Amino acid sequence: xxxxxxxxxxxxxxxxxxxxxxxxxxxxxxxxxxxxxxxxxxxxxxxxxxxxxxxxxxxxxxxxxxxxxxxxxxxxxxxxxxxxxxxxxxxxxxxxxxxxxxxxxxxxxxxxxxxxxxxxxxxxxxxxxxxxxxxxxxxxxxxxxxxxxxxxxxxxxxxxxxxxxxxxxxxxxxxxxxxxxxxxxxxxxxxxxxxxxxxxxxxxxxxxxxxxxxxxxxxxxxxxxxxxxxxxxxxxxxxxxxxxxxxxxxxxxxxxxxxxxxxxxxxxxxxxxxxxxxxxxxxxxxxxxxxxxxxxxxxxxxxxxxxxxxxx
Length: 312
Description:
Elements lengths: L4 H15 L3 E5 L3 H4 L2 H6 L4 E3 L4 H13 L3 E7 H4 L4 H10 L5 E5 L17 H6 L5 E4 L3 H13 L4 E4 L21 E4 L4 E5 L2 H14 L5 E5 L2 E3 L3 H11 L2 E8 L4 H12 L5 E6 L9 H7 L4 H12 L4
Parallel strand pairs: 1-2, 1-3, 3-4, 4-6, 5-6, 8-9, 8-11, 11-12
Antiparallel strand pairs: 5-10, 7-9
Helix pairs in contact: 1-8, 4-6, 9-13, 10-11
């Protein structure tokens, strides 16, 4: 049975902590939610509960990084990308200290806490910072790889995680290439470029659309920055139409990044975007929120049909 993304993260953090004594973990008093508590139980001397002080936590992470430690700073994505932004900008982006900012409960996954805790602008914020790398975990196996990659890559990075269980896309131990998307399903009529939970929904949508005779390629663009522009342009040339799908605002996230790449290359193909329109969501059960705000399998199906109708 698939693990929740946060549980997979906690397990991966602990495994890496056992291998590398330079890893330190910081949390803003939500370690039970982020699952950094898994690390805390075994390595209390390398765990620091900073309290509800996200800016201080991010600055402390930079301090650890400056003396050779590998700091993983944890709190909800909505807070680390906003309250933690100034030190992330000064010490991670400008000073290039290799802080690892782990944004838990990304998207609408903190469903019942409502818009104050939803994170639908974090990708846009973090990808705008020079020198930062930005990732979105699409399943448990990829979460494990992302943690190991964060340990090995001497760069500041933001990794968006979720509280929920995502469908398994990859086998345990799967490896990925930094800055390279992964084609999870081939297709010739249109490409869906997705990240996070929308990758699984896109694969399910492709299965349903195949019954109608439509061949849909699905790309997991888990690495938002650096972006795999080469793959995006190849998909545009080979399938002639693109849909982006993300649990994020349609402004500034994966869809914006893909459109920038297509526009700069002069790739004039129709593009549809699945994401939260320019608004906040509300409180409620997670699956119902995804459906209401057009962030589920049916939304991908509708976007594929509408975009194909514009294909010449």
